Automatic annotation (TrEMBL):
The keyword Nucleotide-binding applies. InterPro entries: AAA+_ATPase (IPR003593), ABC_transporter-like_ATP-bd (IPR003439), ABC_transporter-like_CS (IPR017871), ABC_transpr_LolD-like (IPR015854), MacB-like_ATP-bd (IPR017911), P-loop_NTPase (IPR027417). It holds the Pfam family ABC_tran. This is ABC transporter domain-containing protein.
Length: 240
């Protein structure tokens, strides 16, 4: 059984955003350690678009991604994903919704070292209730799409960094979630592998996914349909 969450892009129609943040604040710490990481952030992300989130180190890029995907709740403001308000949800509902709608790609790949490539890509599918045979079919299709179909029986440590990132992207796209959040996905890669990953993320966005990438890489920014720039937790370019 799949989780009972909608995978529609928006709430009502095709023009609705996949994700909308409205008046979002995120404050860490209290007193002398209080830090405002996001300050009145209002922004939308649409299906079939690749957005680069840029800004200096500490400007709030990762916090924006974490709040967008429900990994963290904001201090105030609303986050609506595929018509569902994440900011109203308790931890269990949030985890369920996240599992159905959001895929993550990280700089350090985050593959499970003791599982084969195929098992890694099958894992989220099986966790969300897809039966084993169907999970395998979808995982193989995703590995084919990301150009690493020959490595299914290998373990992550037996692959190059570029190959591991492409496995991580296969895992992210295998069950067709409408939102892909990537935090510095080219950060650990050389130029050629970085370019492959960018081109793959472009393809994924062109296929209908809202793809949001936090990055310091100017090549990602160049390839993006849109740039959102953060400065000290404020959006200074490309908001809403
Ligand atoms: N869990 C936390 N507790 C306290 N402060 C935090 C926490 N997470 C982030 N911050 C602070 O919030 C600010 C924004 O952090 P964030 O990681 O979002 O920045 P970033 O733009 O992604 O930076 P980088 O480009 O270096 O990854 C920083 O000043 C950071 O120190």
């Amino acid at each position: 059984m799949r989780t009972a969450v909608s995978t529609r892009p928006g709430a009502g129609g095709p023009d609705d955003p996949v994700l909308r943040l409205e008046g979002v604040h995120k404050v860490y710490g209290t007193g002398a350690t209080r830090h405002v990481a996001l300050d009145a952030v209002t922004v939308e992300f649409h299906a079939a678009s690749l957005t680069a989130v840029v800004g200096h180190s500490g400007s709030g890029k990762s916090t924006l991604l974490n709040v967008s995907g429900g990994l963290e709740q904001p201090t105030s403001g609303t986050v609506v994903l595929s018509g569902q308000e994440l900011t109203r949800m308790g931890p269990a509902e949030l985890a369920r919704t996240r599992a159905g709608l959001v895929a993550y790609v990280f700089q350090e790949y985050n593959l499970i070292r003791t599982m084969t490539v195929l098992e890694n890509v099958c894992l989220p599918l099986e966790l969300s209730g897809t039966d084993r045979k169907e999970a395998r079919r979808q995982a193989l299709q995703a590995l084919e799409r990301t150009g690493v179909p020959k490595h299914t029986r290998k373990f992550p440590d037996q692959l190059s960094g570029g190959e591991q990132q492409r496995v991580a992207i296969a895992r992210a796209i295998a069950d067709h979630r409408p939102l892909v959040l990537a935090d510095e996905p080219t950060g650990a890669l050389d130029t050629a592998n970085g370019e492959r990953v960018i081109s793959l993320l472009r393809d994924i966005a062109a296929g209908g996914v809202a793809c949001v990438i936090a990055t310091h890489n100017p090549e990602v920014t160049e390839a993006a349909d849109r740039v959102v720039r953060l400065q000290d937790g404020h959006i200074v370019e490309g908001g809403a």
